[in-house]
Write a structure and sequence with these properties.
Elements (H helix, E strand, L loop, with lengths): L4 H9 L27 H15 L5 E7 L6 H15 L3 E5 L8 H12 L10 H14 L5 H14 L3 H10 L8 H9 L5 H11 L6 H7 L6 H20 L4 E5 L15 H15 L3 E7 L1 H8 L5 H8 L2 E4 L5 H19 L12 H8 L5 H10 L18 H11 L3 H4 L3 H13 L5 E2 L2 E7 L13 E7 L2 E9 L5 H11 L2 H4 L3 E6 L8 H10 L6 E4 L2 H15 L1 H4 L3 H10 L7 H7 L16
Parallel strand pairs: 1-4, 1-5, 2-3, 3-4, 9-10, 10-11
Antiparallel strand pairs: 6-7, 7-8, 8-9
Helix pairs in contact: 2-3, 4-11, 5-8, 7-8, 8-9, 12-14, 15-16, 18-24, 20-24, 21-23
């Protein structure tokens, strides 16, 4: 047993429990919290059994509903399932927890499907590339690994620019149920070693409109936004059927309660998602559906559906309830966290739960606590026994959550700013924290949604109402980053219709250039003209990142156990919004000029 200076210093200088104690959606994909396999082992064992039954063709599809109160470890369990599948390669994994528009649930799910398959699979490359390799190997009777396939694709493409077209024809010779050949072509394009080609192929598979030059280069057809939504479910089904030819697909729906809104038909997010899961269950060849929710959501919302029996017969062929911790579970949980910590510090503790008293942990277990409560207790009681350590200066309760969201954005900010809705939501929330304040000579009075007919909705994201030099100003803000072609044209057309939407100024938020000679450029010129006095504000990663992060903390405040007031106080104290250049540029006097730093569309 070692109690040397190294051990004492490790405990003095580091608290392994001083970190956000929630599993967020992005944590599902990365190595996050230490996993304790004994916790909720009954649930993960049941899921792995279902996957094996589907893999060995004992059953084609199995639906599992996991019911648990907040904090009992639903997301920990899902993370365990994801990492086990990544390790053993027995199935591909799709995770969806964020739905921006319930009225376009099928298109939203297609986006989540495409983004999930971007993550690394069991062979060290994206799940898209695993699928593309399997499709090619079957068509040509080969045995390439994804790594070998990427090199092969690059070699063949150098001498044959029509390689994807030829391979697609070969695949269609054996895949007679594929309705849209472009799906095969786009999946094969994910093998490209050119990051731009791979990204645009995945964007197309996600239902996004591509710049026409990119669509032409990849040989993929662009569709209108209306057509893409109509085609989304068919595209989802064809992709899932392709996967099912080679492996089971595990589809997980999580955090259904975090979206407190209804669609046009009056259904909540959990109801819309459950109906979608039922429809997918009926259409796919092979897979396991996991739907995680609170027991009250199951009782009050899912069971309240008119077609409840039809839905539950599919998504809840098996129901699993997660349990509160027992004394032995508390010991196992704390021991695993400390084992990882001491290994990292390269010191040896005298016993597995040192510096805690094992009897106190067992007493804590008798209260049947949640995982988060145990970890919070450990965080608060972390100290070297018999040695008085000065308490650290108090930290704002929001600081840890905010830093967690900032860190999560580090590697995915480029993808995040392509999502207009996320950027617009972050901006709208940020401006709402400034109501009553004066910034750039504009006193902000209120932040409003723009009233519009259904055909005009979604183009102008919100309106800032304020007073400048004694005059009322109404600034319409339109984020048009992740779009091009017809949608960009339509958005700019609405932004210059001041009378229709009750505006005095239009503000475009975008980082990419707008091509000369297009209708969109004509509308832009009108917006920036002296007559309308509109503005184009450049969207920059480093400026939107803190606004996205604080908005994500607000959305996940229940998970972080924070209040709206605490989050707004943190934003104000740290001047996250007040000193943000993007916020100030939107409010400042328009320059009427096209930003010099706007980037090329195809970069």
């Amino acid at each position: 047993m070692s109690n040397d200076n190294g051990l004492i210093n490790a405990i003095k200088n580091h608290n392994p429990f001083d970190r956000p104690l929630v599993v967020r959606s992005q944590d599902i994909w990365v190595t996050g919290f230490p996993d304790v396999p004994s916790l909720n082992a009954h649930a993960s064992d049941a899921v792995f059994d279902a996957i094996e039954r589907v893999r060995t063709k004992q059953q084609p599809v199995i639906g599992i509903t996991i019911k648990a109160e907040r904090g009992l470890g639903k997301s920990h369990l899902i993370s365990r399932i994801r990492h086990q599948l990544q390790a053993d390669g027995s199935a591909l994994f799709v995770y969806t927890s964020e739905i921006n528009d319930l009225n376009r649930i099928k298109g939203e799910f297609l986006r989540n499907l495409a983004n999930s398959l971007k993550h690394i699979g069991s062979q060290g490359m994206s799940q898209w590339r695993e699928l593309a390799t399997a499709i090619f190997n079957e068509a040509y009777n080969k045995a390439f690994t994804p790594d070998e396939m990427v090199r092969h694709f690059s070699e063949v493409l150098r001498v044959n620019s029509k390689v994807v077209e030829h391979w697609t024809d070969k695949v269609l010779g054996i895949k007679h149920d594929i309705e849209n050949p472009d799906i095969i072509a786009a999946i094969l394009w994910t093998l490209s070693s050119n990051p731009s080609e791979e990204r645009y192929a995945i964007n197309w598979l996600a239902g996004q409109e591509l710049p026409q030059s990119r669509a032409d280069a990849l040989g993929l057809a662009n569709s209108s936004a209306q057509d893409r939504e109509a085609q989304a479910f068919s595209t989802v089904r064809q992709i899932l059927d392709l996967i099912s030819d080679y492996k089971p697909i595990v589809i997980c729906f999580d955090e259904l309660e975090s979206i407190l809104m209804c669609n046009d038909a009056g259904f909540t997010a959990s109801q819309v998602t459950a109906i979608l899961a039922k429809d997918l269950y009926d259409k796919i060849k092979r897979g396991v559906f996991i739907t995680a929710m609170f027991p009250q959501t199951w009782t009050d919302q899912i069971r309240a559906l008119k077609e409840a029996e039809s839905v539950t017969d599919r998504i809840a062929q098996r129901t699993i309830e997660l349990t509160y911790l027992k004394s032995e579970d508390v010991i196992a949980l704390v021991s695993q966290w400390l084992k990882d910590f001491y290994n990292e510090q390269e010191v040896t503790p005298p016993y597995s739960v040192y510096p805690f008293d094992e009897d106190k942990l067992k007493e804590l277990g008798k209260e049947r606590p949640m995982v988060r409560k145990v970890l919070q207790w450990c965080k608060e009681n972390w100290s070297v026994p018999t040695i008085i350590i000065p308490p650290p200066p108090p930290r704002h309760p929001v600081e840890s959550a905010y830093n967690n969201e900032i860190a999560a954005l580090k590697d995915k900010i480029k993808d995040e700013i392509e999502d207009n809705k996320k950027v617009a939501n972050a901006l709208q929330f940020s401006f709402s924290t400034l109501i009553g304040q004066t910034l750039e000579n504009v006193q902000i009075i209120e932040i409003l949604d723009v009233k519009a007919r259904s055909a005009d909705q979604g183009y102008i994201n919100f309106k800032i109402v304020g007073r400048e030099n004694g005059n009322v100003v109404k600034i319409g803000v339109s984020v048009l980053e992740g779009v091009s072609g017809r949608f960009l044209q339509a958005g700019l057309k609405r932004l210059i219709e001041y009378k229709e939407f009750d505006l005095t100024r239009g503000c475009l938020v975008r980082s990419k250039k707008i091509s000369s000679g297009t209708k969109a450029k004509q509308y832009l010129d009108v917006l920036l003209s002296r007559h309308l006095g509109g503005e184009w504000v450049l969207l920059k990663n480093e400026e939107i990142k803190p606004l996205l992060a604080i908005n994500y903390v607000m959305k996940a405040r229940n998970d972080y156990e924070l209040t709206e007031a605490e989050i707004i106080d943190f934003a104000i104290q740290n001047r996250i919004v007040l000193d943000n250049n993007l916020i100030r540029e939107i409010l400042s006097d328009p320059s009427g000029e096209i930003p010099e730093d706007a980037i090329d569309e195809d970069i």
